[in-house]
Amino acid sequence: MSDFTLVQGTLAAATPLIFAATGELVGEKAGVINLGIEGMMLVGAVTAFAAGAAGWPVVLALAAAAVAGALAALLFAVLSLSLGANQYAAGLGLGILGSGISAFIGHDYAGVSLTPIAPILLGLDPLVYLALAIAAATGWFLSRSKAGLVVRAVGESPRSAHDIGYPVIAIRYAVTLFGGAMAGLGGAYLALCYTPLWIEDMTAGRGTIALALVVFAAWKPWRVVLGAWLFGGVALSGLFAQGLGVELPSELLSALPYVATILVLALARTRALEVPASLGQTFRVEG
Amino acid sequence: MKRLVLERRAAPLAWMGLGAPLLAVALTLIASGLLVRLLGRDPWETFQVFFVTPLSTLYGVSEWLLRASPLILIALGFTVALRANVWNIGAEGMFIVGAIAATVPALAFGDGHPVWLLPLMMLAGALGGMAWAAIPAYLKTRANVNEILVTLMLNYVAGLLLSYLVNGPLRDPAGFNYPQSAPFDPSALFAPWGEAIRLNGSILITLAALPLTWLLLQRSFLGYRMTVSGAAPAAARYAGFGQAGLVWAGLLISGGASGLAGMMEVAGPLGQLPQSVSPGYGFAAIIVAFIGRLKPLGIVLAGLLLSLLYLGGEAAQMSLNLPTAMTRIFQGALLFFLLGADILITHRIRWRER
């Protein structure tokens, strides 16, 4: 990291947040809030790490992490979408279960390290660019495509969307699995590039920061990227400040994303936030 | 084509309210038995280590009750808040702030061994938790801010605050730079009830909270107003029950209980303020509340179960070399199976033509 500049470091630190928050944003746009991002990221991280340690090519390790994240999300989806469980409770359960499973599997990898993925452009690895590309594509999808409009309609009024004939539950399944896959990729980035060393609970709250980021970004994809750069940069600037001899408690900087998000929630007018109207509410087609 | 469908029951199945947690426990045992089997271990031996060994000694039983106590106390607070339709998932943070708040008088007045130190610490712990809970209460009542997100975020802020304090102002000057406070004076500790055990008088706080919670929920006007406003907000408004006051009451009671639990931990088994005060009690207590069906008696049983899972996880690590993460897998699976089983209260599963 020594020849890493603050800009490069910020872009790298923002990458897992962009992956996870973009996935969560699409889910929330359709009315599904998943508090278990941390768990899905950890499951993705341990899967990618295990695949990397077994010598799988990077692309396969990433795919495995995305699939693992999506499978974790599937548990949440079955409970909250098919069985009508409370989304907040199911998300909490997923967070605990995911961290438990990852720690359990990761037990054998404690202290193992991997060779990080090589940089391709401007000293940054391909995943940094992949995250930005996915965020841009998501922004286009939600605001410009017909399918994106349907996703937003499901989030605003699932009842009307259902009455028009859209499969609300199926759409919510799709976005939830997408969110899981993205969280899995975010975790994989930590395990394969950022840390490349297995540490139990290596996400260290990033799943919750991703959740915060969606709020902070007022549910707009491009703002997720800006927010991730801001949060990533703030976290790193502490290290750089220390290097310059300025003593700042690292905890203060680490707390900023959470505090900033609470302030955004408190100060922004509801209309400016574009909160999806049915966020967190159970939808059921009664037969 | 025939397929599985969910069909709404004409009336909720009352006994399933109690059947669902039992079903969830059974399914968790089956699933974890399969997991253990998959790892090439003997499920019976593992369960023996998890659920029987910890309770085979007096020390084990004392630890069982000692660990169940904060879980039950926090879960009672969570239940009260939930009655007013407030989702306080910030008990972890309130627990931490309560522990910090109780530490300050313990370190400041411990040298004089005053008899009023423990009561003062209890007050400080409860007030600390309430202060942390006041943030989401203020934001929810003034700006209609979602308390779930705020309480979740504040857990992390509390953890970072604790980390800052034990690495800075509250660090033991004689502690070789370890991130923890000085050990408390005996006057700042609940005295253990025996030579070789750690169980102490703090469990009486939890025991007292049980009938108080029951009275509050079942027999008080405050509990009644909470129930009405939680279940039928429009009716509550019509009756003139101030929604804001109930949100405040729910969060402050919940925060006070969590903060007190944090105080019990530092003034009990920990005996000082370390960098990590809670092994996830704040989250586990939410599972306790749901498994306990939001009823004091059920919460006691669920608290004992979750406490046993913590002990079993440690025993399995020591004697079977299984990672302690087993405990979290058990916890998560238990909550998942319960949430799934709850559908059986209102729905039946049928094979039906589509």
Layout of secondary structure:
The complex is a heterodimer of chains A (287) and B (354).
Chain A (H helix, E strand, L loop, with lengths): L5 H24 L7 H17 L4 H25 L4 H20 L19 H19 L1 H11 L1 H7 L3 H27 L11 H11 L4 H23 L6 H18 L2 H4 L14
Helix pairs in contact in A: 1-5, 1-8, 1-9, 1-10, 2-3, 2-4, 2-8, 2-9, 3-4, 3-8, 5-6, 5-10, 6-7, 9-10, 9-11, 10-11
Chain B lengths: L1 E7 L7 H23 L4 H10 L5 H26 L7 H19 L7 H27 L3 H21 L35 H17 L1 H11 L1 H6 L4 H28 L10 H11 L4 H25 L4 H17 L1 H4 E7 L1
Antiparallel strand pairs in B: 1-2
Helix pairs in contact in B: 1-2, 1-13, 2-12, 3-7, 3-10, 3-11, 3-12, 4-5, 4-6, 4-10, 4-11, 5-6, 5-10, 7-8, 11-12, 11-13, 12-13
Short description:
The complex is a heterodimer of chains A (287) and B (354). By secondary structure, chain A is mainly alpha-helical.
The number of helical segments of chain A is 12
Q: Residue-averaged pLDDT of chain B, rounded?
A: 90
**Computed structural class of chain B:** mainly alpha
Would you list the SSEs of chain A in sequence order as H and E?
HHHHHHHHHHHH
Number of helical segments of chain B?
14
What's the main sheet of chain B like? 2 strands, antiparallel
Low-confidence stretches of chain A: none
Annotation, overall tally of beta strands of chain A: 0
Outline of chain A, from the CA principal axes?
Answer: globular
- Backbone structural class of chain A: mainly alpha
Oligomer state of the chains in this structure: heterodimer
Q: What is the CA-CA span between the terminal residues of chain A? A: 58 Å
Structure report:
The complex is a heterodimer of chains A (287) and B (354). With 287 residues, chain A is mainly alpha-helical. Helix content of chain A is 72%, strand content 0%. Chain A has helices at 6-29, 37-53, 58-82, 87-106, 126-144, 146-156, 158-164, 168-194, 206-216, 221-243, 250-267, 270-273. In chain A, helix 2 packs antiparallel against helix 3 (58-82) and helix 9 (206-216) packs across helix 10. The longest helix of chain A is centred in the middle third of the chain and has 27 residues, at 168-194. The radius of gyration of chain A is 19 Å and the shape is globular. Chain B is mostly helical. Helix content of chain B is 69%, strand content 4%. Chain B has 14 helices and 2 strands. Chain B has helices at 16-38, 43-52, 58-83, 91-109, 117-143, 147-167, 203-219, 221-231, 233-238, 243-270, 281-291, 296-320, 325-341, 343-346; strands at 2-8, 347-353. In chain B, strands 1-2 form a two-stranded antiparallel ribbon. Chain B is globular and about 75 Å long. The termini of chain B are close together. The model of chain B has no long low-confidence stretch (mean pLDDT 90). Classes of the chains: A mainly alpha (287), B mainly alpha (354). At the A-B interface, helix 3, helix 4, helix 9 and helix 11 of A face strand 1, helix 5, helix 6, helix 11 and helix 13 of B.
